[in-house]
Amino acid sequence: TVRLWVDDAAALAWMAPDGAERVHVMPWRDPQANEEPGDVVIEAFGCDPPAAFVQAMARRPGCVWINLEYLSAEAYVERSHGLASPQFSGPGAGLTKWFFYPGFTPATGGLLREPALAPRQAAFDRATFLAQLGVAPGAGPLVSLFAYPGAPIAALLPLLASEGAHVLACPGPLQAELLAQAAAFPSLHASALPWLTQPAYDALLWSCDLNLVRGEDSFVRAQWAGAPFVWQIYVQDDGVHAGKLDAFLQRHLQDAEPALAGAVTELS
Q1: For residues 53 and 151, what is the distance between their CA atoms, to the nearest angstrom?
Q2: For residues 120 and 202, is the Cβ–Cβ distance under 8 A?
Q3: Which regions of the chain are under pLDDT 70?
Q4: Predicted pLDDT of residue 233
Q5: CA gap 48, 56 in Å, rounded
Q6: How far apart are CA 138 and CA 165, in angstroms?
Q7: What does the radius of gyration of the chain's CA atoms come to, in whole angstroms?
């Protein structure tokens, strides 16, 4: 049984409109006096649980505290995954916080993938799925786009137009911008997609010749799809995202031909 404390649950309205069995969504707030921590507390991305809740964790025998960190291909992830951080003072005195780092090597926490993914992909019918979306593939490449606001659409669209691409734009602030700018290119076709379930988004990735993805989750699903992709990493104010991008590209392209590796690196 899972309790998920989150400060904005709006996205769950379309991601999981019917909820999920044994998952309870809670508003992020100071805990009530009668709320007891579970056997395991997962602190996502350093969210700092309220002090009163951490005190209750310290009173619960055997409570396991995990700090789930960001995905990265950087070398420090291997050194940091699984490290213990004993709490000698403060509300959690006596507890140990354990660091969990997702990553791309056996020395990290890895990437959790459902067992049925590969069989689902092997049985996938591309033509039927695209017909359900109302998409009729043309002679040019089919491209999916899921990106952050501020993605360099103006520079990207002429390249896609030169190939006669058909761009399938996922919902979000960028969708309207893409459709408006695509109208200036007669050889470019653009379609607005509705919100998709996670299995349907996987099917979209399997259907496309190129996937433009962002963040962490769509980035990982694109790798498992086995199709060419370009990753838009989340921009951080202090610029540390540049190191994360370089570390991933080095691993991703380590066996690629130099010309291809250079082109992908420059585009990324």
Answers
A1: 39
A2: yes
A3: none
A4: 94
A5: 14
A6: 8
A7: 22
